[in-house]
């Protein structure tokens, strides 16, 4: 395996290790806000909870797309190496 290929694999690995904790954080925040929202009767709290959940959903979509892109590159990298 060439040095530039190894560097690209290392870069992709670092990108994945950066994305996965962010995705987990968003998931935990989403669960917490959902739990708080279920107990709240206050209209303002419900509004902000909905807004936060919407933002979390958007970020999860972006992170999922980044993960898919990296996975695609890794799969193609393995095929090119063979």
UniProtKB/TrEMBL annotation:
It comes from the Bacteria. This is Phage protein.
């Amino acid at each position: 395996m060439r040095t530039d290929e190894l560097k690209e694999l290392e870069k992709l690995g670092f990108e994945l290790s950066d994305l996965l904790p962010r995705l987990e954080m968003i998931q935990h925040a989403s669960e917490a806000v959902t739990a708080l929202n279920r107990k709240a009767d206050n209209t303002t709290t419900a509004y902000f909870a909905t807004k936060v959940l919407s933002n979390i959903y958007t970020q999860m979509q972006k992170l999922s797309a980044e993960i898919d892109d990296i996975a695609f590159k890794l799969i193609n990298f393995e095929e090119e190496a063979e």
